[in-house]
Amino acid sequence: MTVKTSSARKNGTVRTGPEAGAEPIPLRYGDDPYVWACWLYYEDHMTQGDIAEIMGISRATVNSYLADARARGIVNISLEPSRLSSLSIAQELKRHFGLHDCLVVPSDDNARPLIDRLGTAAAQALTKLLKSGDTVAVAWGRTVLAIGEQASVPGLQDVTVVQATGGTRASFAYTPELCAAAIANAVNGKLINITAPAIVSNAEVRDILLREPLIESQFAALSKANKALFGIASLRPNSTIHTSGFFESVSVQQYLAKDAVGVLAGRFIDGRGNPVAGPLDDRTIGISLDMLRSIGLRIAVAGGFDKVPAILAALRGGYVNVLITDAATGRGILNADGVTELDQKLSQRPKIDSSVALPSNFRTHIKKFLNDPDDVVEEMLDGVVKAHGAYIQPIKGSHRALVARTGPRLGKVGLVIGGGTGHEPCFLGYVGKGLADAVAVGNIFSSPPPGPIFQCARAASGGEGVLFVYGNYAGDVMNFEMAAEMAAESNIEVRTVVTTDDIASSPLEDREGRRGVAGNFFMFKIAGAACDRGLSLDTCEAATRKANSRTFTMGVALEPCSLPQTRRHNFEIGPDDIEIGMGIHGERGVIREKMMSADEITDRVMDRIFSEMKPASGDRVAVLINSFGATPLMELYILFRRVEQRLSAKDIKIEANWVGHYCTSLDMVGASISILHLDNELTELLHHPCDTAVLRVG
After folding, report:
1. 398 near 438, Cβ under 8 Å?
2. What is the rounded CA–CA span in Å between residue 585 and residue 443?
3. Closest alpha carbon to 238 in 141, 329, 167
4. 543-579 pLDDT, tens per residue?
5. Three-class SS state of 633
6. What's the per-residue H, E or C state across 143-157?
7. Any idea which residues carry the catalytic annotation?
8. Taking a C-beta distance cutoff of 8 angstroms, is the pair 143, 301 a contact?
9. Of 113-117, 306-310, 507-511, the least confident
10. How far is CA 384 from CA 310, 371, 452, 469, in A?
11. Using CA atoms, how far apart are residues 59 and 47, in angstroms rounded to an integer?
């Protein structure tokens, strides 16, 4: 059944008469009783009598809904895919986490920023969730302000809105004060601010302020809240929590080191939802996690694939019982918590009878060239050093810190790159003359520790500073920052560029929260050329940042990868499915689609890239068609053929291209397409000579 929204009907609603107020429509169905009735009938296979009881209407009305829906073309044989996906995800989130309700916004083509779409959805949800006489605790953030700006809930009386935390010194528009005011205005409610800073200098100041009669009365009002509205912040470098002033005197590394993954109203939680103790605890003025969890209705509005760990932690900790998110994020949350099939309940899955002999061609493990799986990284590195000894050598005998034999020199900015293994030839293959001076190596899909990174910085330093370039992952950010602090103590100036080329991992307005994937190749090339030319540290950093801002990558997987220790697939992709928006750490994609032709896949990726790159006729680009490990060159060239056709149709010249294995994910079957939008400076740096084990230019 293809479902249209209520805007397709006259007068906007059909729920009138004595049954109109019988039962509110659950959030996941929007404002459309047709969708609700049709879902229960066609998807949940309920009888009309059951539906009438659930919806609080007569059976005759149910029958009328179903007949009218078919007559008007609102219902055909199948639900519209995007709405079906959203409803399925919302239902599974509600079931899996025991939520009061859940609303999932369908994924779209990035025509509207995700925050705007979440704000619109939550604004509509407030009309169902808020009632006269409510006291609502309101936290702060970009999403909460978007809700307030788009919400209008008429007809409420005696609603009190209480600011959930103290104020901040930040100059942005989504301060705690402004967010609470926007929600109060939307519901025509009484506003109570917390007239104290969110973070004070020490515990004594906090205790004194909390004893002030005015602030004491404000917290008394906060303690009476029966509903809460809040966003969920990740700990990525550009998140709201970083720009709020929270870390002016405290390093986020103190929380990352304790496995913090997210922030709720200024309070830190780990991956299980447990509070993370830290130096801000006794200096924070605002709602506590225990206070939040004691509130009856706790509405969290958050989305973006990078926020999956933080949202999952909030759900696990019981801080949320109404979730409003988007389809890609919702699916990622479920996958991260072990729910891999949305259309089947776990209890309904057929179990394998171990007493029955399996077919001779049935395999449970992937065959690999291994000795001891626990030694795979060290043995691989030993082989790398032996194979490419003309280009790289260990630093102080450690294979975890390698330096170029020709590269580091006095008077030149040093370039240090690094990351986990499993991506070969990245990062090891990009060390040599004209490219990286040193590389720090971690375990499979894991960041290298600070020690080897610091050793690389010292080996690469030529007296003009060192540039760190690495992907945007929490472990890498933490360890490279610690290494930079160690380098500073040794009088080595370090600048950092974190790569964020994966356009699928976060929306456009959150570019700084994206992952660094195969487009690293271009950033390394540009940075290495700038350093090799003897340019200043400022200029090298600026050129690399420009390359990062003009690089766009998107990946698609046909089959998952398998780790040496398990020799099993990380997850399962159906025989007729593909994963779009793959990372490089064996994780799932952002969305799952049915298998399509090579040209259709390429068009899907290129359309998304064009929407962000906005090229003009006569522009020049560099193209990278990258295998995730198990995709052969034959198929990569088929993808390149279509990329060239799409670029040529827009009169865009391919200045340079690379097709092959450049940034893999072990043995994953799939590929990514990276486009670097060139200008004159980047073109010159791209063509600058380099000579490494896997890349030679000039």
Report:
1. no
2. 12
3. 141
4. 999 999 999 999 999 999 999 988 888 878 888 999 9
5. helix
6. HHHHHHHHCCCCCCC
7. 423, 585
8. yes
9. 507-511
10. 37, 16, 17, 22
11. 10
